[in-house]
Amino acid sequence: MTSARPLDRFRSSGLLWPLVAIVALLAANAIVRPSFLALRFQDGHLYGSLVDILKNGAPTMLIALGMCLVIATRGIDLSVGAVVAISGAVTCSYIAAAPDPTSARAALVGMGMALALCAVLGLWNGFLVAALGIQPIIATLVLMTAGRGIAMLITDGQIITVRNPVFRTVGAGFLVLPVSILIAIAVFVLVAVVTRRTALGLLIESVGINPEASRLAGLRARTIRWTVYVFAAICAGVAGLMISSNVSAADANNAGLWIEMDAILAVVIGGTSLAGGRYSLTGTLLGALIIQTLTTTVYSMGIAPEITLVFKAVVVIAVCLLQAPKVRAALGRRTRRRSAQPAPDAEPGAERSEQTPTGPIVEKVTQP
Amino acid sequence: MSKKFLAVAASLALVAGLTACGGDSSASGGGADGGITMGFAQVGAESGWRTANTKSIQESAKEAGITLKFSDAQQKQENQIKAIRSYIQQKVDVIAFSPVVETGWDAVLLEAKRANVPVILTDRAVDSDDTSLYKTFLGSDFVEEGKKAGEWLVKDSQGKSEVNVVELQGTTGAAPAIDRQEGFAEAIKAAPQIKVIASQTGDFTRSGGKQVMEAFLKSNPKIDVVYAHNDDMGLGAIEAIEAAGKKPGVDIKLITVDAVRDGMQALADGKINFIVECNPLLGPQLMELAKKVVNGEQVPPRVVTEETTFTQEQAKAELPNRKY
């Protein structure tokens, strides 16, 4: 691996095609409208389409990071969208009912309560999956269905509007860049350091490959699985704060609707296998960016709403195909003939990664 | 033995559950004392608009002396069909409901017809060839709402050489979105200087409206007017316009539909310029129709909800009375 040239290493990391997709989308936008890439300062912060992509993509990114670790343990969390709704509902209800709805204290206590509740919901998911051994897709389906109902109960079915400057900062505020993307990047760096600079990432992957063998080898498999669900729920909680803060309102019906699908898609586009055992945080981040870039592209190119979904599907299929080992093998045949020797099969871990349908992912893809 | 008992208990609980939701209706017994009993099958409680709709029906039933049996279908057609069947069995005098979806109602409506229970549709229509299955349809005319929005803009644009409009559509394929777009397009034909330069769906949500508007503001340098198919998308657009350093209502004018409380507040604050009402408070009209139908009087097959429009001045006066 160390002997491989940087370009080869990059190509085999599975990050090449997601990156190509983003660049291609941005280039297409820039051709249609050259001002797409333009940035300027507006009231002391950056303003432009690229900033919008980062700001609106931050919640998906954050949820996808949590989802990525869950998927690495061969699990899945369908309840994140419902947790998003609950998080916003709790915070806005608390702020609206506080004696001074504009105070920083109301915002902080409300957000703290929401995140604490999200952690409890994560514990519940983890309990069903890790302690009771229920299939993750079923276990989290419980909260996916019930969670939105809980959010509706909290808000009484109404959209709760709040005017709180501190709460507003989370999703709509700026420190040159949008605060939401700064939070997402901070979480990304934290996760990268904690899982890739320690053995934790390896342990998560080993649980994903075989939980029983990992347990027999002395790993606390159950605790690890439990923890990733709690982490995913907290990520979803923070994303929920961003989403409701962005519009200063809690909409229990629509906040985070189908975002679990976007998050799973981001993880898969980023090259992580749903079969577990391997994950790529950078890929996940790129995946979430692709999804948001797509959405923004649709809006700014003026693609008709009736064909929006088809357009999105075509791009997603293209990226997934490029990620598939067979397609890549066919595409890479020419280059391999030229360089002739370093067969990727010789690399350790290649046997494992060949099982993954979305292509091999190399360990330590993240170098913060 | 105990299994059988459980089954009976369960089915009893089910029936009770279907009817128990209307707990506040005065239990005077269906029709025995000459009063009218109405069975109402609501869609659910999916929005503030719907909640206001439910409250209006419950309150006006009480005022009109009509006994209301109320059920909430939680956006599921099968729940609504079950509720309607139970109303038929309870021999209510009239059934009213807002269909969750447009199709699949023929069988249960035929049962009601055979049992001689008249049916009134509210808010949403059903797609059926047999119009004898229901007496009347009470609801908003979405095309008319779009027209009212367009007409205001035509009047407002007099003497201007160019007016660029961006449209925030509702959920793609939803009847209100299609009709409000159609009505608006028809009305602005009268003024050739008005052009819709971009149109995208914001899914009737605030965050959708905000995201689409953010993109519009960057891709279209000159936007004069935003036409949003509901207040919520308009409120999202206001946030996007403010973030771009422009003044909503002044630099860019906003027209929306619905007139929910948050929207009226923004209108009174001068951030929205004109709102076309889509009235959820159709309870009084419904009770009036129900009385006529039960007494065997003729009713028109289509009754449009009484709706108005609001300017900024009218909003200031109306705001304290807005319940939803």
TrEMBL record, chain A:
Keyword Amino-acid biosynthesis listed: no
Give the keywords, sorted.
Answer: Cell membrane, Membrane, Transmembrane, Transmembrane helix
| Membrane topology according to the record | Multi-pass membrane protein
What's the short name of a Pfam family annotated to this entry? BPD_transp_2
Q: Name one GO cellular component term.
A: plasma membrane
| Subcellular location(s) of the protein | Cell membrane
**Per its UniProt entry, which superkingdom is the organism in?**
Bacteria
| Gene Ontology molecular-function annotations | transmembrane transporter activity
Q: Which stretches of sequence are listed as region Disordered?
A: 333-368
Task: State which residue ranges cross the membrane.
Answer: 54-71, 78-97, 103-124, 136-154, 174-194, 224-243, 255-276, 283-303, 309-331
Looking up InterPro entries in the UniProt record yields: ABC_transp_permease (IPR001851)
Matching entries from PANTHER family are given as: ABC TRANSPORTER PERMEASE PROTEIN YPHD-RELATED-RELATED, GALACTOFURANOSE TRANSPORTER PERMEASE PROTEIN YTFT
Q: What is this protein called?
A: Sugar ABC transporter permease
Annotated source species? Micromonospora deserti
Supply the source organism's classification: Bacteria, Bacillati, Actinomycetota, Actinomycetes, Micromonosporales
Automatic annotation (TrEMBL), chain B:
For this chain, one GO molecular function annotation is: carbohydrate binding
The signal peptide here is: 1-20
Q: Which GO terms describe its cellular component?
A: cell envelope
Please provide the record's keywords in A-Z order: Signal
Q: Where in the cell is it found?
A: Cell envelope
Q: Name one Pfam family in it.
A: Peripla_BP_4
Keyword Signal assigned to the entry: answer is: yes
**Domain Periplasmic binding protein per the UniProt entry, residue ranges:** 44-298
Entry-linked InterPro entries: Peripla_BP_I, SBP_2_dom
Q: Which family does it belong to?
A: Belongs to the bacterial solute-binding protein 2 family.
Protein name according to UniProt: LacI family transcriptional regulator
Source organism of the structure: Micromonospora deserti
Lineage at the top is: Bacteria, Bacillati, Actinomycetota, Actinomycetes, Micromonosporales
